[in-house]
Design a protein that fits this description.
The structure is a single chain. With 155 residues, the chain is α+β, with helices and mostly antiparallel strands. Helices cover 28% and strands 34% of the residues. It has three helices and eleven strands, in the order E-E-E-E-E-E-E-E-H-E-E-E-H-H. Strands 1-2-3-4-5-6 form a six-stranded antiparallel β-sheet, covered by helices on one side. The longest helix is centred in the middle third of the chain and has 16 residues, at 63-78.
Length: 155
């Protein structure tokens, strides 16, 4: 699994959000709105003006680790599944001048490390502004490294 904050590599696409629940799939040709494996809409890149996530962030570098450890301890203490799932965030996708607010599922309880969200926003904005770069979404693994560099402000 190749993941950086809210971005995760999936076959022939880059997912924004938890691919098992509400997320966007960025493909070379379009942005696919998905709920798990079900398509909820397809938007051509030509119509996308902006994609902005609204998800909790933290300054702590390993938020998923802490959440996993705390939930593991709670589960062990209760001897049952506590039923704690991450709250959904949202994503605003501006399409042909109209903002659409969509649910965006998160990978873990707690916020994403703030620089990962910054890198994701910068990468997505770059893909919107530079259509020739979208072909990279067919094999998105290197785009995670680009998001890391963009989070650091080195690109």
């Amino acid at each position: 699994m190749n993941r950086y904050g809210p971005l995760i590599v999936v076959p022939e696409a880059l997912a924004v959000g938890d691919p098992g629940r509400n997320h966007l799939r960025l493909t070379p040709d379009a942005v696919i709105i998905r709920e798990g494996v079900e398509n909820r809409g397809i938007v051509s890149w030509a119509d996308v003006e902006a994609i902005v996530m609204d998800v909790p962030t933290t300054r702590f570098r390993l938020p998923g680790l802490v959440g996993t450890l705390l939930l593991g301890a709670l589960t062990a203490a209760m001897l049952t599944d506590p039923g704690v799932d991450p709250d959904d965030g949202s994503v605003t996708m501006t399409v042909a001048g109209e903002p659409r607010i969509l649910p965006l599922s998160r990978h873990h309880v707690g916020g994403y490390w703030a620089p990962t969200v910054t890198g994701a926003h910068r990468l997505i904005a770059h893909l919107i502004a530079h259509p020739e770069q979208r072909a990279l979404l067919a094999h998105p693994e290197p785009l995670i490294d680009v998001a890391v560099q963009l989070a650091r402000g080195t690109r």
